[in-house]
Sequence to fold (331 residues):
Amino acid sequence: MICLGIEGTAHSIGVGVVKDVNGKCRVFSNLIKIYRPEQGGIHPREAANHHAIYLADLIKESVAKAGIDFTDVDLVSFSKGPGLGPCLRTAATAARALSLTLNKPIIGVNHCVAHLEIGRGTLEDCNDPVLLYTSGANTQVIAFAEGRYRVFGETLDVGIGNCIDKFGRIVGIEFPCGPRIEEIAAKGKNYLELPYSIKGMDIAFSGLLTVAEQYYKKGERLEDICYSIQETTFAALTEVTERAMAHTEKDEVLLGGGVAANKRLRGMVQIMANERGASFFVPSKDLCIDNGAMIAWLGLLMHNSGIRMKIKNSLINQRFRTDMVDVTWRD
Ligand code: ATP
Ligand code: FE2
Fold:
């Protein structure tokens, strides 16, 4: 079966075409367009307008790049949530139109679960991982337990990517700020004390952001501040991930989300995994960030396990939680 998936939860609009080959995910195409606000944060309506402008062409290009015809598409999937309402609606509307035009089934999927399943689907020996999902808006530690993907820990305020981007904006770095801050942090040497805030299994970043801003205003070296932000936030993420692994007795860890591109984060999690004798996995970058292929793959898994959705039930859900999904396709 071939599935075309449309991702549109936030900044990115993506269209991917994938096929199930003996239970593994073969990606035929995976095209993404990212909305970059001229200044300030993301405006949901403007992001949705951006997605609407590019989506029809992106669908055509993705089908062409996959080397298939529209008639070869067996299933259409879309990101049902969580995310920004106008963006989700734009992606879902396109998916409905495509499903009706092609007369092929439609399925709406959970974006966070898709981040985990694309790792299992594309990486050899990645079977039952604890996912550390770190993106702009999301920061969650997710693992499978008793029929659901459960959230073992998450941010209590902003996502780690947004935290980094907010600091970047304060110091005049262009969005998205993660890659540049990583470069600057590599030149930092002196650790500046920052709040390390873990509550139970959850993490908070806003206090750290305030103190980092104060350091900047006091004239501390930007290199040292960026270094300290990375060391503190990534250590907290690694600690919560390790605790989830210990609790669930799992010996695989998977990274997902745009922040997984960061070498220091990868390094820290890798060390933790090595020390526990666990395996460490990161999907390729285009499958780590928000993308259509992961939406397509989860759509296929759900469809193959017998789940069906009618157009009238294909509503979006801005607050679609990871643990609301009944996981029928694995045990
Ligand atoms: P979601 O809806 O999943 O929250 P998003 O569009 O906010 O999606 P992604 O595309 O997964 O997120 O990731 C974007 C984030 O990743 C941005 O906040 C960006 O700054 C961050 N990022 C990208 N590269 C790096 C890096 N090398 N180091 C740290 N952060 C990074
Ligand atoms: Fe995401």
Summary: The first helix runs from residue 44 to 66.
